[in-house]
Write a structure and sequence with these properties.
Layout (H helix, E strand, L loop, with lengths): L1 E10 L5 E11 L2 E3 L11 E9 H5 L5 H12 L13 H4 L3 E4 L2 E4 H13 L6 E5 L14 E2 L9 E2 L5 E2 L4 E2 L3 E3 L3 E3 L2 E2 L4 E2 L3 E3 L4 E2 L12 E2 L4 E2 L4 E2 L8 E2 L4 E2 L4 E5 L4 E5 L9 E5 L6 E5 L15
Parallel strand pairs: 8-10, 9-12, 10-13, 11-14, 12-15, 13-16, 15-18, 16-19, 17-20, 19-21, 20-22, 21-25, 23-26
Antiparallel strand pairs: 1-2, 1-4, 2-3, 5-6, 5-7, 23-24, 25-26
């Protein structure tokens, strides 16, 4: 495997790299962009990277490598959780993301003062280590109602629709067409034809010591304001308002028997309906007889 890439880095007045926009990537003979890249601005720097497969498996060592790995995921050259992103938070600087590009935190006060004095329209969209996806890559056949809620490093398959309250973190995303009105946290992937209802939450791997990769299979529905802390298979439905964690005690109903298990014992299972008994609060799982279907008209995102 051979990876060649060329990009343009934005520099702070002190010469530090703030971000890198890769205009050209050749990933094992799959190419995006034009190989001819010129830099005429003293505030910019040409970045050239030559990697092999070993670099994908190494922790992130520098800003250039961090941005290239995020680009590789968002261009869908690699799947979420398939390359090593360890160390990325230590490498990436916190940046003021503005309507005129990234500005170093130590320089933003001066630039804001200059803007106010000269009646310019400088405004800060966020203070973060990660920029939004669409400042670098425009995914094809995808609809995003609020682009500020999707980070660079998100993996979005064609046919995905992300509504205003939807959020997709880096190293996470959709593996087919999907309706996202909830949160796809870091490390989480959503299968084809699945729906995350309004306010639905998926437990990521960045906080709380959670090392389990949460995934949602095909044809699944997470109801509004529900939460998921275990991976589930295909054709599963989670009732609105139910937060299912690994330690949740679940009454598993079969045709001839029933038993109480931890939700973690059902990890990866398919064809299950999870709901709460409204009279006693018991969380119940039983065979799901309905298959979730998306409204096809909502996912023709040409």
């Amino acid at each position: 495997m051979k990876i060649e890439a060329k990009g343009i880095a934005s520099l702070s007045p002190s010469g530090n790299i703030l971000d890198v926009y890769f205009l050209y990537i050749n990933f094992d003979n799959k190419k995006v962009g034009e190989e001819s890249v010129k830099v005429d601005d003293q505030k910019k720097k040409l970045i050239e990277v030559s990697w092999d497969e070993s670099n994908l498996n190494e922790p992130v060592k520098d800003i250039e490598g961090a941005y290239l790995k995020l680009h590789l995921i968002s261009y869908k050259f690699v799947l979420p959780n398939s390359i090593n992103l360890d160390g990325i938070f230590n490498v990436l600087p916190n940046v003021a993301w503005t309507n005129i590009g990234p500005i170093a935190i130590e320089d933003i006060d001066k630039r804001m003062n200059e803007s106010k004095n000269s009646n310019n329209d400088l405004y800060v969209r966020s203070l973060d280590k990660f920029p939004c996806l669409t400042d670098y890559i425009i995914p094809k056949n995808v609809r995003i109602a609020d682009t500020s809620r999707v980070r660079l490093g998100a993996y979005l398959s064609e046919g995905t629709t992300i509504m205003h309250e939807g959020f997709v973190n880096f190293n996470a995303g959709t593996l087919g067409k999907a309706m996202i009105e909830g949160r796809i946290s870091a490390g989480v992937v959503i299968g084809d034809n699945s729906d995350l209802g309004g306010g639905a939450s998926t437990m990521g791997t960045l906080s709380g010591g959670n090392e389990v990769k949460i995934s949602v299979g095909k044809n699944c529905l997470l109801g509004a304001n529900s939460g998921l802390g275990i991976p589930i298979g295909d054709n599963c439905t989670l009732e609105a308002g139910l937060y299912l964690t690994a330690g949740t005690k679940v009454l598993m109903l079969n045709k001839t028997s029933s038993k109480v298990v931890k939700a973690s014992e059902l990890s990866g299972s398919s064809d299950l309906l999870f709901y709460r008994d409204s009279t006693n609060g018991q969380v119940i799982a039983k065979m799901n007889t309905k298959v979730s279907k998306l409204n096809e008209d909502l996912h023709i995102n040409d």
